[in-house]
Amino acid sequence: MNRSAKKLLITGLIIGLLSVPFSQNSNVLAKEQTKVEQKAKQNELSTKKVIELANEFNRIASYIQQGGDYKNEEYKTFTYDKKTYRYLSSSIDTKKELKAYLEKVLVPAETEQFIKNRGIIEYKGKLAQVEADGGSLLQWEKATAQFVKKDKNNLQYRLTVPVWNTNEKQNYLIEYQFVNNKIGWKISKEPIQEKSTAITDKVAVEQAAKFAQATLYVQAGGEYTPGEYKTFLHNGSTYRYLSGKIDTKAELMSYLMQSMTQATAEQFIKDFGIVEYKGKLAQVEADGGSLAQWNKATAEFIKKDKNTTFYRVIVPIENTNEKQIYIVEYQYVENVGWRVSKNPYWELDIPGNVNPISILFNYLLIDSKVSQNQFLPHSTFNVTEFKKGIKKVEFIKLTETERNNSQVEFLVTINVEVEHNYKGPLTNGINKMLFTVQPSGYMEYKIDKIGIVNMY
């Protein structure tokens, strides 16, 4: 074919294309566009699908957590690494079966992570897990979903899930990935509860109660199984080993850090005099117990100072009308939540109108019973004897000089006039006295000790 013929052929093609009616071209383009749109729509992740996948994941996770669906006499346990394990039921007791079941909702990589996170192991050819109960109060089918962000091939959503029979809701972040046209969307990262970095009164009480429970638990040595309680002599004292669940540093720290920061847990172990002896943790033999009902406490926000938030926690005392006030400090631990950062201590900012020292002197010459009531019951101080020969007392000044976690020391300046035959420790004129005061109930304080400061 010569050059001019090629030109004619090309021209002819162009003419041929242009000769197709415009309406026919439009129909062809419209059909192609519809196919593209339909394919895009198939790949689109709807809010309904987001919730359906999350709900299905929760159902599958709960099923696995309870071990599956056991047939008659199929449930079997064994001891491994000091823990009681149970085999999974026959429908999911091999890795192939379990992965196939999980991949109904998860991408393959996340199924591996799921199995690892749940501590599922293979033992004598079958899958097993630590014995535990399954179940959840979260109503995933009633959740609402909100798009958060797109990260490479993953879409992240925030699901707000109602908690059964309450007005509470919990937020979870879940990631989704489009696998292919045949498989569609799957969960690429299982639900992670979104922890708020804002502490609430409820969280303050819950964490303080956990701290108090941990204190009692460790103080009692833990929870001993039959025949496990053993003692030994060490440095002239009788020690006992801690129970099996907390008898190593790693186990004890893991338990304590559910309610307190790592630094506080380390200090806690020191304060309790816990030692390692022949490879196990032990403590001096002692009893634990408390009448303080931390789980029924109320909390009042005080202040936030740098990384620490301070709360006043008011704790009822069991079988009484009394309450005790504590100051509790909290810090936020990344990816964990709020934890107690200091051993709770008594509220020692004593208002002037309830300070027992002021009340003592205001009533000293008027009503001895009221003045005597300002001392702790074990005090041997006798108000009636003390006031003999005192004609007049003028309260001048009260200054806090020192405090610790349990009491405050005050220096009190008074002007005294005494009778000529007075035989007490005071002198005419200015006198200074030292008092230690400690809490004895809700907004109630008592004098523990009293002393005279020698002015000369």
Describe the model.
With 456 residues, the chain is of the alpha+beta class. The chain has 11 helices and 21 strands. The strands form 5 sheets. Strands 13, 14, 15, 16 and 17 form a 5-stranded antiparallel sheet that branches. The longest helix has 22 residues, at 22-43. Mean pLDDT is 87; it is low at 3-20 and 35-41.
Key features of this structure:
Nuclear Transport Factor 2, Chain: A, 5-stranded antiparallel sheet, 456 residues, elongated
Secondary structure blueprint with pairings:
Layout: H1 3-18, H2 22-43, H3 47-65, E1 77-80, E2 83-87, H4 95-102, H5 108-117, E3 121-123, E4 126-130, E5 144-151, E6 154-162, E7 169-178, E8 185-193, H6 201-219, E9 231-234, E10 237-241, H7 249-256, H8 262-271, E11 275-277, E12 280-284, E13 298-305, E14 308-316, E15 323-333, E16 337-340, E17 345-346, H9 356-363, H10 368-372, H11 383-387, E18 390-403, E19 408-418, E20 429-441, E21 444-453
Antiparallel strand pairs: 1-2, 2-4, 3-4, 5-6, 6-7, 7-8, 9-10, 10-12, 11-12, 13-14, 14-15, 15-16, 15-17, 18-19, 19-20, 20-21
Largest sheet: 5 strands, antiparallel
Q: Classify the secondary structure makeup into a structural class.
A: alpha+beta
Q: Helix count?
A: 11
Global geometry: elongated
CATH class category of the domain at 352-453: Alpha Beta
Percent range for β-strand residues: 25-35%
Helix content: 25-40%
Rg (CA only): 36 Å
Low-pLDDT runs of 5+ residues are 3-20, 35-41
Mean pLDDT: 87
The tally of beta strands, per DSSP, is 21
Q: Quote the CATH topology of the domain at 352-453.
A: Nuclear Transport Factor 2, Chain: A
Pfam families: Endopep_inhib
InterPro entries: Endopep_inhib, TA_system-associated_sf
Organism: Psychrobacillus mangrovi
Protein name: DL-endopeptidase inhibitor IseA family protein
